[in-house]
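Tutorial sheet, problem 5. The two components below are modelled jointly, 582 residues in total.
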Amino acid sequence: MSVTPAELGETIRRKDIRSRWLLSAPAMLLIGAASAGPLLIVVLYSFLAPGSYGDVKWAFSTDGWFNVFLSRDIFDDTVSLADAHFSIFWRSVRIALATTALCLLLGFPTAYFIATRPQHSRSLWLFVITIPFWTNMLIRAFAIQEVIRTEGLVNTLLMKLGLVSAPIQMLFTDFAILLGMTYVHLPLMVLPLYASLEKLDFRLVEAAYDLYASRFNVLMKVIVPLVKPGLIAGSILVFIPALSSYVIPRVLGGGKNLMVGNLIELQFGQGRNWPLGAALSVTLVAIVLVALLFYVRNVGKTGGGAHG
Amino acid sequence: MARNPARNFSIKRLPGFATIAMLSFFILYLPIATLVVYAFNAGTSIAAWEGLSLRWFLSAWQNQQVIDASIRSLQIASVAAIIATACATLAALATTRTTPYRGLTFKYSLLNSPLLVPEIVTAVALLILFSRIKVWTGYSGLGYLIAAHSAFCVPFAYLPIRARLENMDLSLERAAADLYATPFKTFRYVTLPLLWPGILAGLMLAFVISLDDVVITEFVKSGGQDTLPTYMLGQLRRVVTPEMNAISTVFLMLSLAIVTVFFFISRNPQKDDP
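Model answer (structure tokens):
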């Protein structure tokens, strides 16, 4: 019995693929067991009844999901939209969008600035941008707290300059959350934008100037369309973690100004309504998936500049 | 650059962009700088400057809770980084330098999923799962935190290793195989030495990521298992003294040192090779 080269090649390839599955097994098992897999339990829990002291009763119930969107009046059983949840979701989306916009406003010029430095100094500038990214989120939130608190740096400065007579309450407001979020997520915007801008062919820019385009037109009609993949990648990379923030609103929002992340925590803590918390979590993941889908459809195929 | 030297007009300049860039750098560094400066404050307030002193570093050093939490953080981060990097190295070998095969996209998505799923959701998922396991087995040690940290560190360790592998040519490994080296020997004497900078970079990223984690740790930890970040989160609810600044400063320096080493290891991998 003779083996043709084609059959031999096929056997080798099959062996190769099998060993590749074996090699990737530990990582996949680890993530399956302690990261991605448990998400299925969350979906299961969202369809159970809440236990009296937290946890769940093993009975099928759609109350968790019902409570995400609707609320039943405890006196007359009338059903209305769950305004509190809607407003928190809406607030989170609004803050996340505003964070994305601010990061874009600051991040685009920053990435452009780095991309137009001489080749050898670019990696150093990038390093300077990424250092804050690798420092602890909590420490950065605490640092922001320190700068904007009533007796903090900004207020002291404003008072000394005589611009205000009494300190401005900035901490524990939406402004504080927005500032903190922008601060924390800015590097996530700069990096993909830089990856796109670095590849920008400046001969096209020169051609536009030769054709008497104004600086503004060059920016909007030449540069921005060329780096669109980076713009979208950066926006998604900022929007997703901003939407699901937990630490920043907790430290800078002072417990009153909740976002979705804090609402979820509340259900697993004082709220003792795990099914509702689980249903809220699934809703949050759904919103994130929609954002990702948008990203894949717009950038995934063209492929450029999506290195986060 | 295709620039006309006769023309006194920079095509790269966009007015105001450099100013905004400087503003970004200023915003990024001002809070951290303030934090570090006030760690050296002699007074008990984190707002009023009362002279230079190291008393808060000493006070942090003598705070048993801080020391315990730091040691626990370092333990978890070391073990989790090693596990994550080992898994990520094997996974990178399995997913690079190949023609697409069935299940490859699935592997990519699963390996990167910890980056995409909101941390708070993973945190509650693990809370649910681990609280069940705790009841069933009665075990409530650091194993849960190590498992959780190892899992979310995998994608961070995976990225630099994969990047390094993709720049490596298969020809050296083929040459080794032609000379009758076993697959293991080829890996040990050819692949591994070439891949080493990537592995080291992955290890350091995983270590820093584990060290920084707040949310998942906060939900998974049992009583008395505070890591440094969760200890700090608890402290932020009370009146804060410059001791917090001192702890933060030391923490910052540690992260900075690791990231600096990472930067020098991972930049221009091709140039390092003779």
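Marking note: Chain B touches chain A through 94 residues (CB under 8 Å). Full credit if you identified this.
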